[in-house]
Design brief:
With 684 residues, the chain is an alpha+beta fold. It has three domains: 310 residues, TIM Barrel; 65 residues, no CATH class; 115 residues, Sandwich (Jelly Rolls), CATH 2.60.120.260. The protein is built from ten helices and 45 strands. It has an eight-stranded parallel beta barrel. A six-stranded antiparallel beta sheet has the order 15-16-17-22-23-26, with helices on one face. The model has no long low-confidence stretch (mean pLDDT 96).
Length: 684
C-alpha cells in the first residue's frame, strides 16, 4: 500500500493534500480469523478507510511468557488481511486498552506483580517493553513504509483520565512509552493519544471521543440530554466532563492540533445495569453534529462487534469482580455496532455510510473549511428549543449544517426557517424550510457540479458520479443554479442503500438492500434474498442473469430470475427448568447452502446463554430487541441449547425497552426465526 501521511493543526494530509478519513474499530481477537477478509470488505463498503484495533494484552499473554498469536489472535495475519482488502490500519498497542476487557486488558499476572502499575516504575516499564517488542515482532514489515497497511500507532488509552499519572509525571510517562516504541522499531507517520477527560498526551496527536449515551454510568435512570448533539467548538466528550468552559480539563491546546475523533460510539455496549439500545439516527445525528462542529476525522468505536475469546485461566470480560464498575456479558461484545457481533448490518451502517460517501468525494475541501457557529446556537444540551446550526466554508463555497435531533428527547419544530451563508461578502439565502423534531441535514452552497454551480439546493449531498452531484432528500426541494449544473436527487432510503463503484472506467451508484463490495469482475452483494439493484446512470450492459425492466425516478432497476429465498424452519421446546432458569432446545431445519444463517430469538428475561455441543459459546443481556446469533462459525448446527435467566420486576436496571410483567418476574422464549445471508457475485 502507498501513501505519505502527515498532519498540520487543521487536518491530516495524504501525499501533501488534505485527507478526511473514516476509521472503524474492529478487534481481530474477538472475531474468527477465517472471516476477517469478508468483514473487512464489508467495512470498506461502508466507507471505512482505516481499520483500528487494540492489541489486548490478556488475549495474547494470559500466562506470563506464554504468548499466543494463533487463530483469531494472529495479529500479523490481520494486518496482512487489511492490506489485501485495501484498508489502512491503526495499531493501538496499549499497554492498557480498557476495551471492556478484564483488567482493562492487563493479564492477571501483571496486576499481581506490580503495585505501581501504569506508572514510571522500572519493573512495570520493563514488562511493557517486552510486550511492545513481542507485538513488533508480529507486525514487522507491515508498516506503510514497507508497503504494509499500518499508518499509525496509539500509545496507551485515556491515560490520566482512567488511571495513570497526571501532570508532568503523566506527560513523562507518555513520552517514555512513545520513545520505547520508536526504539523497538515502530516507525509510522502518525502517533496518537486519546485526549478527552483530562488525559495527558505527551505531545502526541490527540484524538477525541463521544457516545450517544453512557452504559458505564452508574445511574439506572434515563440520562440528561447528551452534549454530543450540540454543535460547539468544544471537542471534549460532554459525558466525560466539559460543562465548565470550552477545553476545561483538556491538557493540550485546541489551536495546535486538528479536530480528530477515534471513539465516536458506533453503538453502545450493554452492561448489566444499563440496557441502552442506540438507533441508527442516534449515531447518524451525532456524527453529523461532529462534522458541523469542525471535525476532520470520523473514527468509530466500535464499528464491528465481536465475541470475547475463551480464556485459558479466567473469563476475559470486564466485571465488578475485577474491580471495575460494570458487569458485561462473558462473551458477547456486540456493541450494537454498525456491523454487529456476527457481521449482520445494523441501521447505523447506512447512516454512517451517508457521511462516509460524502467525505470520500468532498472531504479534501471540507478539511479546509472551518466551522462558524452563530451565537444563537446554544451550547446547552438541555436547551431543546433553539435551532442548532453552523456553516463550514472557505469563503467561496461551503455547507449549512442543521441538527434538530436529541436522543430520547423531543426538539422544538422550526417552521419557515430561513437559512443563509455569507461567502465572499455575498449573503446566499435559501428559501424557507420547515425543520421538524429529529431532522438533521446539511445543504451545500456554491457547489460545482456538471458544467455549472448550485448556488444552493435544499437537499443533502451524497457523492459525485462522473462529475455530477448526487443528493438526497424525502422532501420537495428547491435550488438555484448558474450554468449547466447537472445533478441527481434520490430518496434518503435509496441513499442509505447506495454504494459508489467504478465499473470498466465509469462511475456508478449501485443501490441494493444487501452490502455491495468491490470485485475484480464486477461486484459482490452480501444479502438475504435474490438481489434487485438500482443504478445511476444506466449500466452499459446488464449484469449476467439480470434484466433492466423499468426506470424509477432517474434510477434504473435490474432484477434477477434466480431465487435464493430459502428460509430455514426454527422451532424450540423447553427441556428443563431449575431455580427459575429455563433451558430450551432450538431446532433449525432445512438450512440451505449459504454464507451465514442468522437465528433471532425473542425472549424476556435477564440474560441468555448459548450452548453448542454442551459448551458455552456466547451470551446476551436482555434489551428487548431480541438476540441474533450466527451459525456459520459453529459449523451450522441444526440443534443447540439456550438458557434464559429470570428478570425480576424490582431489579434495579435501566431498560430502554421495558417488558410487560404479568407477575414479579419474566423468563421465556417467545419466538424464534431464521434468515440467511447469501453471496451474489455480479458479473458482466
Amino acid at each position: 500500500m502507498k501513501g505519505n501521511f502527515s498532519y498540520n493543526n487543521k487536518f491530516i494530509t495524504k501525499d501533501g493534500k488534505p485527507y478526511f478519513p473514516v476509521m472503524g474499530e474492529f478487534h481481530y481477537s474477538r472475531y474468527p480469523a477465517d472471516m476477517w477478509e469478508k468483514e473487512l470488505l464489508k467495512m470498506k463498503a461502508g466507507g471505512v478507510d482505516v481499520v483500528s484495533s487494540y492489541v489486548i494484552w490478556i488475549h495474547h499473554e494470559e500466562a506470563v511468557g506464554r504468548y499466543d498469536f494463533t487463530g483469531s489472535r494472529n495479529l500479523r495475519r490481520f494486518a496482512e488481511a487489511c492490506k489485501k482488502c485495501g484498508v489502512y490500519m491503526f495499531l493501538r498497542i496499549g499497554p492498557w486498552s480498557h476495551a471492556e476487557a478484564r483488567n482493562g486488558g492487563f493479564p492477571d499476572w501483571l496486576v499481581k506483580k506490580h503495585k505501581n502499575i501504569r506508572t514510571n516504575d522500572e519493573g512495570y516499564l520493563a514488562d511493557v517493553k517486552k510486550f511492545y517488542s513481542r507485538i513488533y515482532e508480529e507486525v514487522k514489515g507491515c508498516f506503510i513504509k514497507d508497503g504494509g497497511a499500518i499508518i499509525g500507532v496509539q500509545i496507551e488509552n485515556e491515560y490520566g483520565h482512567c488511571g495513570g499519572l497526571n501532570g508532568d509525571e503523566g506527560e513523562k510517562h507518555m513520552r517514555i512509552l512513545t520513545e520505547m516504541a520508536k526504539e523497538i522499531g515502530y516507525d509510522v507517520p502518525l502517533y496518537t493519544a486519546t485526549g478527552w477527560g483530562g488525559a495527558v498526551t505527551g505531545g502526541l496527536l490527540p484524538v477525541m471521543g463521544g457516545y450517544c449515551d453512557a452504559p458505564w454510568d452508574q445511574s439506572t435512570d434515563k440520562l440528561a440530554p447528551s452534549g454530543n448533539y450540540v454543535i460547539t467548538y468544544e471537542r471534549n466528550d460532554h459525558g466525560i466532563g466539559s460543562d465548565h468552559h470550552i477545553g476545561y480539563g483538556v491538557t493540550f491546546d485546541f489551536n495546535d492540533f486538528p479536530y480528530l475523533t477515534a471513539e465516536l460510539g458506533g453503538g453502545l455496549q450493554v452492561t448489566k445495569h444499563r440496557r441502552t439500545v442506540p438507533s441508527g439516527h442516534d449515531i447518524g445525528a451525532m456524527s453529523l453534529t461532529k462534522l458541523a462542529s469542525g471535525c476532520n476525522l470520523l473514527g468509530y468505536y466500535m464499528y464491528h462487534g465481536g465475541t470475547n475469546p475463551h480464556g485459558k485461566l479466567t473469563t476475559l470480560q470486564e466485571s465488578t469482580a475485577t474491580g471495575y464498575l460494570n458487569d458485561l456479558p462473558e462473551y458477547s461484545y456486540d456493541f450494537k455496532a454498525p456491523l454487529r457481533e456476527y457481521g449482520q448490518r445494523a441501521e447505523s451502517f447506512g447512516e454512517i455510510k451517508l457521511l462516509a460517501m460524502f467525505v470520500k468525494d468532498f472531504g479534501s475541501e471540507l478539511c479546509t473549511m472551518p466551522a462558524y457557529i452563530p451565537e444563537s446556537t446554544s451550547s446547552d444540551p438541555n436547551d431543546l428549543a433553539d435551532l442548532r446550526m453552523s456553516v463550514r466554508h472557505n469563503g467561496k463555497k461551503g455547507y449549512i449544517f442543521v441538527n434538530n435531533y436529541q436522543r430520547l428527547y423531543d426538539m422544538a419544530e422550526h417552521k419557515n426557517t430561513v437559512l443563509s451563508a455569507e461567502l465572499d461578502g455575498e449573503k446566499i439565502t435559501l428559501p424557507p424550510v420547515d425543520i421538524g423534531n429529529g431532522d438533521h441535514f446539511f445543504y451545500p452552497v456554491n457547489m460545482q457540479t456538471g458544467e455549472g454551480v448550485l448556488k444552493y439546493i435544499t437537499a443533502t449531498p451524497l457523492c459525485m458520479v462522473n462529475g455530477k452531484a448526487v443528493l438526497y432528500t424525502d422532501k420537495p426541494y428547491e435550488f438555484e443554479a448558474v450554468g449547466d449544473a447537472e445533478f441527481e436527487v434520490i430518496s434518503r432510503k435509496d441513499a442509505l442503500n447506495a454504494y459508489k463503484l467504478n465499473i470498466d472506467g465509469e462511475e456508478y451508484l449501485i443501490i441494493s438492500d444487501g452490502i455491495v463490495c468491490e470485485n475484480t469482475h464486477g461486484f459482490r452483494i452480501y444479502g438475504e434474498k435474490s438481489p434487485v439493484i438500482k443504478t445511476y446512470p444506466k449500466l452499459k450492459k446488464a449484469p449476467v442473469g439480470f434484466e433492466c425492466k423499468v426506470e424509477e425516478n432517474g434510477l434504473y432497476v435490474y432484477s434477477c430470475a434466480d431465487s435464493c429465498d430459502d428460509k430455514p424452519a426454527v422451532s424450540f421446546k423447553l427441556i428443563s427448568e431449575n431455580d427459575g432458569v429455563k433451558k430450551y432446545e432450538i431446532d433449525v431445519a432445512n438450512i440451505p447452502k449459504c454464507e451465514e444463517c442468522y437465528v433471532k430469538i425473542d425472549y424476556t428475561g435477564d440474560k441468555s446463554r448459548l450452548y453448542i455441543d454442551g459448551q458455552l459459546a456466547d451470551d446476551d443481556f436482555y434489551t428487548g430487541e431480541g438476540w441474533t446469533t450466527g451459525l456459520a462459525r459453529y459449523g451450522f448446527p441444526n440443534k443447540f441449547e439456550v438458557e434464559i435467566y429470570p428478570l425480576f420486576k424490582d431489579d434495579r436496571i435501566y431498560l430502554e425497552h421495558t417488558p410487560n410483567f404479568d407477575g414479579s418476574m419474566i423468563c421465556e422464549i417467545t419466538s424464534a426465526d431464521a434468515s440467511c445471508e447469501y453471496v451474489f457475485d455480479i458479473e458482466f
